[in-house]
């Protein structure tokens, strides 16, 4: 009886909303001292981080129009300084543990060119308005796995608990629907790599005009991934319906294998199961630096800090460079990477003792202006630093919202790495309308077998 009572009490507790919404007085800061997304509007004391003044929302002269390559609006910017192994100690308080490890592992080749900080992040006005309303109304239920009373904007612009910034990252505004080419390179210790090309179509019901929490049918993201090369993997399909309330219904996922010619339910497309075509260097929940359920971790906000993170990554996104120009032995071509000093939320997730994950602890460095996870330090069960992630973001100024030029996952123990989300030799990511029916399993099965 005691065990049954305890189980019932636990169920009641997890079903109750967790305190998340803030008071009207606190939400009002989103219109004064904070940006509409919850970042500190002011610059820092020494001016190395400027004040946010609305972000970058005009198309530069080099931009040729919607659907074409995003060019660098700051071509005359020069590095303020370059961090190397020789001077790393001077900047150590503004580096992640993963960055420090890279300097130690590659002392003669790894470097970080630090540029003037430009707070280019900007979003449409309706996202700002929705974010303000979310601050007043959004809650979490189901032990943090159910998003309640949130729509369009980030749900928790003034976060109080560790899982809230992670939710902000998961539902941050990235447009309403579109297509991107995602090239993955699993790089060996010698610098060789095999390229896997993925065509990814996505729709965000959460950000559709007129959407309400009730209209979503519990789906916040529709995702369809098709492998186009190499031939041995071509035609492999992954379909995901990401749910808003994962207690009510976990992620729906399916996979299609050309050899079997059937679309099958795939509950393993989650957590630490290996990602498609990544040669074991990426788990499913490392796409977009982190995605999916948060329930295997206990989350806490460590604080905010000024850190050098990849930003305004137009150079490495340029179609002037081939993938071979970017991929090098040990790490990507750091001469193409741009780093800036930004304030980040530091959030740690530790695996709960009642469950498992191959990553025992993850430390996320989340950009305050965009809620994009910029860096991740990843630890194994022994407490040793194992892997390290980066996301190089840039502002899609004609939209406006930030996009990703390249993501990297470095295996510090095996001297290998994965570069993903590159499209330098493929078409630019573009908005493309998809109806929800496009992501229906029956339609995907029909298209796959044509």
From TrEMBL:
Top-level taxon of the source organism:
Bacteria
Q: Report what the protein is called.
A: DUF1329 domain-containing protein
Recite the UniProt keywords alphabetically.
Answer: Signal
Q: Name one Pfam family in it.
A: DUF1329
Q: Which Gene3D superfamilies match?
A: Lipoprotein localisation LolA/LolB/LppX (2.50.20.10)
Q: Map out region (Disordered) in residue numbers.
A: 426-450
According to the UniProt entry, where is the signal peptide?
Answer: 1-20
Q: Does the keyword Signal apply?
A: yes
Q: Which InterPro entries match?
A: DUF1329
């Amino acid at each position: 009886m005691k065990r049954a009572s305890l189980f019932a009490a636990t169920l009641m507790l997890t079903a109750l909303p967790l305190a998340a919404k803030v008071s009207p007085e606190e939400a009002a800061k989103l219109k004064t001292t904070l940006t509409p997304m919850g970042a500190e509007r002011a610059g820092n004391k020494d001016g190395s981080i400027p004040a946010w003044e609305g972000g970058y929302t005009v198309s530069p002269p080099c931009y040729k129009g919607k659907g074409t390559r995003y060019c660098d609006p700051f071509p005359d910017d020069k590095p303020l300084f370059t961090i190397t192994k020789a001077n790393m100690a001077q900047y150590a308080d503004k580096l992640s543990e993963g960055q420090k490890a890279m300097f130690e592992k590659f002392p003669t080749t790894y470097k970080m060119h630090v540029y003037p900080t430009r707070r280019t992040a900007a979003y449409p006005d309706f996202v700002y308005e929705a974010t303000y309303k979310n601050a007043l109304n959004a809650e979490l239920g189901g032990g943090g796995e159910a998003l309640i009373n949130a729509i369009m904007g980030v749900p928790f612009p003034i976060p109080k608990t560790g899982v809230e910034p992670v939710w902000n990252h998961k539902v941050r505004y990235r447009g309403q629907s579109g297509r991107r080419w995602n090239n993955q390179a699993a790089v060996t210790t010698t610098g060789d790599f095999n390229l896997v090309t993925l065509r990814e179509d996505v729709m965000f019901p959460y950000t559709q005009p007129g959407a309400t929490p009730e209209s979503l049918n519990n789906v916040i993201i529709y995702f369809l991934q098709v492998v186009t090369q190499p031939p041995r993997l071509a035609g492999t399909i992954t379909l995901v319906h990401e749910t808003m309330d994962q207690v009510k219904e976990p992620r729906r996922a399916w996979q299609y294998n050309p050899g079997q010619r059937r679309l099958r339910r795939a509950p393993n497309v989650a957590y630490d199961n290996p990602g498609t075509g990544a040669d074991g260097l990426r788990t499913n929940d490392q796409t977009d630096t982190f995605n999916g359920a948060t329930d295997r971790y206990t989350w806490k906000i460590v604080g905010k800090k000024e850190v050098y993170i990849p930003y305004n990554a137009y150079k490495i996104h340029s179609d002037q460079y081939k993938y071979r120009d970017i991929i090098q032995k040990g790490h990507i071509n750091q001469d193409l990477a741009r780093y800036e000093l930004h304030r980040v939320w530091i959030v740690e997730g530790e695996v709960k003792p009642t469950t498992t994950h191959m990553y025992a602890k993850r430390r996320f460095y989340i950009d305050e202006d965009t809620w994009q996870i910029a860096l991740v330090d990843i630890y194994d069960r022994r407490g040793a630093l194992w892997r390290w992630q980066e996301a190089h973001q840039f502002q899609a100024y004609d939209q406006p919202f930030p996009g990703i030029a390249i993501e990297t996952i470095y295996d510090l123990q095996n001297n290998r790495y994965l570069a993903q989300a590159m499209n330098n030799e493929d078409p630019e990511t573009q908005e493309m309308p998809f109806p929800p029916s496009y992501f229906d399993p029956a339609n995907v099965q029909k298209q796959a077998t044509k």
